[in-house]
Design a protein that fits this description.
about 150 residues; mainly alpha; Four Helix Bundle (Hemerythrin (Met), subunit A)
Length: about 150
C-alpha cells in the first residue's frame, strides 16, 4: 500500500523529470517543442498542487486544527512558483531563451527547497496524522489529479 509520502514523493520525481525535459528543450531552436514540453510540465505541477490544495492540506488541517502552520507556508510557495510558471510561459511566447533559463533556474532552486520541506517534514506528519484514513485520502487525491 502506498503512503501519502511515497505517493507524493513519487509525483515530485515525475514533475522533476518533466521540468528537466522542458529545460533541456530550451537548448534547441524549436520554440514549438519548448512550449509543448513546458506545458506538459506546467500541467503536471498544477495537478500536483491541486491534489495538495484541494485534498491533502484540508484533510491535514481539519484533523490537526492547524491552518496557519506548514500547509500555509506550502500554499505561499505554490503562489510564488505559479508566478515563475507564468514568467517562463511569457519567456517562451517572447522566444527569450535567456529569460526562460533564468526563470527556470530560480524555479529549480525553489522546487528543490519546497520538495525537501514536504518530503522531510510535512508528508511524514501527514502520514502519521491521517494514518487511519490514508487510503481514502489517496483515492481523493488521485481523483482530484485525474
Amino acid at each position: 500500500m502506498d503512503t501519502i509520502s511515497s505517493y507524493m514523493t513519487s509525483d515530485h520525481h515525475r514533475c522533476d523529470e518533466l521540468f528537466a525535459q522542458a529545460e533541456a528543450a530550451a537548448s534547441g531552436q524549436d520554440w514549438g517543442t519548448i512550449a509543448a514540453d513546458l506545458q506538459v510540465f506546467l500541467d503536471s505541477m498544477h495537478r500536483h498542487f491541486k491534489m495538495e490544495e484541494e485534498v491533502l492540506f484540508p484533510a491535514f488541517e481539519q484533523r490537526t486544527g492547524m491552518s496557519m502552520g506548514p500547509t500555509q507556508v506550502m500554499r505561499m510557495e505554490h503562489v510564488q512558483m505559479r508566478e515563475l510558471f507564468d514568467a517562463m510561459a511569457d519567456a517562451v511566447k517572447q522566444q527569450d531563451r535567456e529569460e526562460f533559463l533564468g526563470q527556470a533556474e530560480t524555479l529549480l532552486v525553489m522546487m528543490q527547497q519546497h520538495n525537501m520541506k514536504e518530503e522531510q517534514m510535512l508528508y511524514r506528519m501527514v502520514d502519521q496524522t491521517l494514518a487511519g484514513e490514508m487510503e481514502e485520502v489517496l483515492q481523493q487525491m488521485r481523483a482530484a489529479g485525474a
